Amino acid sequence: MNEQTQEILEDNLKNKQLIDLLASSVNAEVYIAQSDKTMASYGLFNLGGLSTISDNLANLSKSLNDVDAKLSDILEVLEND
User: Is the pLDDT of residue 1 over 80?
Assistant: First the structure.
């Protein structure tokens, strides 16, 4: 059980780091858009900024679902004890 708990904590730390990365990416795009909308559009569409954000959100969603499944498994074990 301790091993599973440690794994969940590590996964949650990775999720927090990914959320921070996504927030930074979005904040950077907003900052660029405030001064140069053309450059912001270029970054989002031509340089793959939007795809990167989308991919990171998909990875985050999968990881959150994995953590949820692990927590459900632990709760099931605890309920059966």
Answer: no
